Amino acid sequence: MPQQGLSWDLLADLQLLLEFHFMQNALLVGTLVAVLAGAIGYFVVLRGQSFATHMLSQVGFPGAAAGVLVHTSPVLGLIVFCVGGALGIGWTGRGVDAGRRSESAAVGSILAFAIALGLLFFRLYAGSAQGVYGFLFGSILGVTDQDVVLTAVTTLAGLAVIALIGRPLLFASVDPEAAEARGVRVRAISIAFLVLVALSVAETVQVIGTLLIFALLVTPGAAAQRLTSRPGLGLGITIGLSLLFMWGGLSIAYFSLYPVGFFVTSLAFATYLGIRLVKAAA
Amino acid sequence: MNPLSYDFMQYALLAGTFTALAAGLVGYFVVLRNEVFTSDALGHVAFTGGLGALLVNLQLLLGVFGSTIAVSVGMGSLGGRSRGRDVAIGTVFAWVLGLGALFLSLYTSAKSGASGGTAGVSILFGSILGLQATQAAVTAVAGVVTSLALLAIARPLMFVSIDPDVAAARGLPTTAIVIVFLVLLGATVAEAVQAVGALLIFGLMVTPPAIAQRLTSRPFTGMLLSGALAVGFVWLGLALAFYLSYPASFFITALAFGTYVVTLAVGRLRRVTT
Questions:
Q1: Alpha helices, H only, A47-128
Q2: Of the residues A13, A239, B42, B272, which has the maximum number of CB atoms within 10 A of its CB?
Q3: What is the ipTM of this complex?
Q4: A45, A115, A212: residue with CB nearest B87
């Protein structure tokens, strides 16, 4: 990877960072992913759907493996499985909630099965351990040109839909009853939102992996909501934080050769902790 | 060919049976007390703890048991789970897993051999067919001890889980009972990680009790049924893995999940016909 180490010359460091094609792809996809994840993540926290997000990311794991198995893009498999899972949750019509006993047992059973299915697909493919780790913990090496295009298309589509339904979505999230009374189609909007979550989970997995999705889809939104209660500003802070975690994580990972997921989650964890401590002291 | 004539199958059966028994029994209370996501989080801790121990040249088992029991008790003594803390817990455990990924990468580059690369996979997805004699013995003994301890506190624990206020009013040491339960939970997660892996412990700890609760509403029958189901899944899963040579943890989880779906469907049908 980098031939020289870091120096105090920032311009040279930046050139070093952008020297290789794989890193250009990773940064490009990372940026697209972080913008969409930030925009969606703000609403995920607002609607209390962090658990559904966790669930969708694990449902995506066999999708990625299936994509590899049938020789198409793993991102495509992720999208198919995640959107399928989102429609399933939306179809049953109940909010997935970690707090309820029968629901959490059912969800736990589904999650274990999904991961086991992913494991089986990987064995069928006779894939290496490294491939499994890539999908579980993320990888900056695996982003192909095809993935960049696919990610760009889904990000643009996702942002367009968010722009379109943003206002009623905010209304329906803050006060569903009042929104319903005003003629907002709350159920349709919540299903549409779950599909958006699925798309952004599918994208995010390719960079930081199935198991670490929380750090980009939930933590920035949670941190932003501790800082401000104004929706516009909060949305901006969320996107800014997720970009920061993504760029920081990718750059440090590039220069250190350790997994990108560790740095992204560490940055997220440290920021969240810092904000909570500052708020507690104030 | 007779599966039992192979050493690795004997070890797998020995460790698997008692792990499953403990997981089914403890899991019943996990579902009853609605601590499903505590056990999920503990699975993640086990991954990082196990790799951390390997990294500093300690026994893997030591790291797995030590970290899960410590965190289980720590989480329990913080107590009072509320909705707002989902995000905090999720953020912490995402970081713990990230740390595990770092340990894995450090360990892999330090060992730079086949053993380094597979250590992580076997913690994540289980390695019941690859147990050594001592590992199997330790796991089996731990399973027996956990099961017996749980049976010993089953009656007061049931009381505390169903109605903590009345139990406290009757003079039961509720805090002590819960802490003992959390220690047992940590130990069981550590055992189950050996059998089915950190990512699949739900298949042994949550699915069997979920099935049992659908089949009977009597608490002690349910608890024993849950233990028996878990043992059954492990036996069948091991047999299938032996003949079909796909991962045992896949078969165990798939059998449990399939049974759960059938139970749900039969329950639906019965409700429709009556």
A1: 50-69, 74-92, 101-125
A2: B42
A3: 0.78
A4: A45
